[in-house]
Amino acid sequence: MDLADVRLNDPLVRAFKGRPDLDSPCGCGSHEGTTPLTVYLPFNIDCLNGGFVSAKGGGIVPDQSGHWLIVQNQSLVLPEGPDLAPTFGALPEVFRDKLGTPFWLGHWRESPCWVAGLPRDAALPAGFQRETLVPMQDTRLSDELLSLGGMAMQLLHWESSSGFCPRCGTATERIENEWGKRCPKCRYEHYPHLYPAVITLIYDGDRVLLARKSNFAPGRYALIAGFVDNGESLESAVRREIKEEVGVEVDDIQYVGSQNWPFPSQMMIGFIARYTGGEVVVDTTELEDARWFQRDALPNAPTHHSIAGFIVEHYARRQAGG
Questions:
Q1: From CA 196, how far away is CA 268, in angstroms rounded?
Q2: Distance between CA atoms of residues 199 and 301, nearest Å
Q3: What is the model's pLDDT at position 193?
Q4: Is the pLDDT of residue 18 over 70?
Q5: Tens digit of each residue's pLDDT (9 = 90 or more) over 157-185
Q6: How confident is the model at residue 226 (pLDDT cuts 50, 70, 90)?
Q7: Quick check: helix, strand or coil at residue 30?
């Protein structure tokens, strides 16, 4: 089977179309046939299966009690123990003078969800542990906690970067029923920033072109990715990034899906693209290596938490057996 036909023939995609009785691949419960399946990846709100209601729309601010998403350096601070669950109830006294301003994120499982940042250099109180939110660091967190923790990181990032008007420097105010901020002086409004980036699997028959950066785990290869420039379509960004980073040409660019990526605030937009020519020439300022792999002999790939891992699994590895 040609890889270009996968989107129509992938059994997972076919199975989910119009099938509300099936469970999602993230294990979060049944969904009403929403495709593509990447919507159920961690860091996407759909992974929470309707169990989360955002505070974006305002309402009566609840008491500061409930789930506490305490973030320190891209990690969640959790009570020690095997459960890997956030603190629930009132904020423990050991954190009273250590955290930044708490923010109401919304309701999860019908209880308020609060976000607060612990300074990078602050020592952990006794009885607490850090668990990384970064998939490439072998996170042990559930997909639900990754999704909540991702939103927590993005909220803290937004609050830390939106306190003053980018035009005149006046302290901003939150816009009612929005996450956005407004300047009371010049009335400029701005909203949480999401930075679009394309990520693409390049295929040529039974082989795929994968690349690695120097900070990847040993032997791990992934997909070509990069930010979208002003004036570009997503497809133009795919062609340009591939040409710049590995020197080859592609066509038949097909959309796979997307994933919110809170490091700090990207939207990863996944594609597959057919190789049409050119020799692999690696841009060593961006990549350590890039090479062709047979689909039945793929290297260590990204984890299932990322859209890169999803694309490798369902648009490369899965097709190796025909």
A1: 6
A2: 14
A3: 93
A4: no
A5: 999 999 999 999 999 999 999 999 999 99
A6: very high
A7: strand
Domain 53-159 belongs to what topology?
Nucleoside Triphosphate Pyrophosphohydrolase (3.90.79)
- Find out whether 167 and 188 touch, Cβ atoms under 8 Å: yes
Question: Phi/psi at 72 (nearest 5 deg)?
Answer: -140, 115
- 195-321: CATH topology is Nucleoside Triphosphate Pyrophosphohydrolase (3.90.79)
E strands, 194-265, in order: 195-204, 207-212, 224-227, 249-261
pLDDT at 20 over 80: no
- Torsion angle of the four alpha carbons 11, 16, 22, 27, in this order, in degrees rounded to the nearest 10: 80
| Measured distance CA(285)–CA(204) in Å, rounded | 25
The pLDDT tens digits of the residues spanning 200-221 come to: 999 999 999 999 999 888 899 9
**What is the three-class DSSP state of 243?**
helix
Average pLDDT over residues 142-147: 96
Domain 53-159 matches domain 195-321 at the CATH topology level: yes
- Helices (DSSP H) in 162-258: which residue ranges? 234-246
Give me the pLDDT at residue 319, please. Answer: 60
Contacts (Cβ under 8 Å, ≥6 apart) of 148: 48, 52, 67, 69, 86, 105, 108, 113
Per-domain residue ranges of the chain: 53-159, 162-193, 195-321
